[in-house]
Amino acid sequence: MEEALKQVFVPFVATPGGEKTQLGVFSTEQDAWDVMRAFLAKAGATDVVSGSIVAWEIDYVGEEGSLELAAFDRSNCPVCDEMSFWVEGDQEKARCYFPRCGAWIEQNAYDPSRWDCGWPAANWNKRAEDYEQAYKGLVAMRAQSTSAGMTSRMASREAWLDEKDRERRTIQQNKFDAASNEMTE
Ligand SMILES: [Zn+2]
Questions:
Q1: Which residues are paired to 12 by β-bridges?
Q2: How far is the CA of 104 from the centre of ligand 1 (A)?
Q3: What spacing in Å lies between the alpha carbon of 161 and ligand 1's midpoint?
Q4: CA distance 55 to 129
Q5: How much distance in Å is there from the Cα of 152 to the middle of ligand 1?
Q6: Is residue 152 pLDDT above 50, yes or no?
Q7: What is the pLDDT of residue 145?
Q8: 14-49 burial, b if ≥16 CB within 10 A, otherwise e?
């Protein structure tokens, strides 16, 4: 026999004006998280600035039938500068959902005194003492990549566009060279 449903999980998102959009109602917390993450991954084109996952007790009488399990706030990514950096709770975790970036900050699962941050696009990881320091770690990664000219890694949109621009100019230059060679020959 299946266990009776006691709780449902509701992910929702909100705009700066406080207008809320519910993303569904789920019988497991995992499903609510999956739907929330899928939304955040595509939130770039929306004006959503916050989100939350709420558990609701079923057949509950009274005011305290719901509990917020997680809250998300949108901000600027310290690495790629896109508005795709989602901070969880009171700076408990953060992740950039911009596909070519993916920068993240997280408390170490085994050692609570340790924080980790990373930038998958550049294959970099760093450890830190707290969230603040991990955030600075990401800023430093960006600075380092800029000075190292890591454009070929497509680390950020800016870098990627720069790279494309350079390729285009090189092609044009080559065409120009070829044309002028023909003229002088
Ligand atoms: Zn980013």
A1: 22, 52
A2: 8
A3: 15
A4: 32
A5: 17
A6: no
A7: 82
A8: beeeeeeeebeebeebeebbebbeebbeebeeeebb
User: From the CA of 48, how far away is ligand 1's center (Å)?
Assistant: 17
Distance separating alpha carbons of residues 181 and 185, to the nearest angstrom: 6
For 114, phi then psi, to 5°, come to -115, 140
Find the 2 Cα to ligand 1 centroid distance in Å. Answer: 43
Tell me, in angstroms, the distance from the centre of ligand 1 to residue 102's CA: 6
- The domain locations on the chain are 1-75, 91-185
CA nearest to 69, candidates 51, 87, 49, 55: 55
Return residues with CB closer than 5 A to ligand 1 (ion).
77, 79-80, 96, 98, 101, 103
Average pLDDT over all residues of the chain: 86
Tokens of 176: 């120009």
Distance CA 2, CA 53 (A): 24
| 4: amino acid identity, one letter | A
Distance 156 CA to ligand 1 centre (A): 7
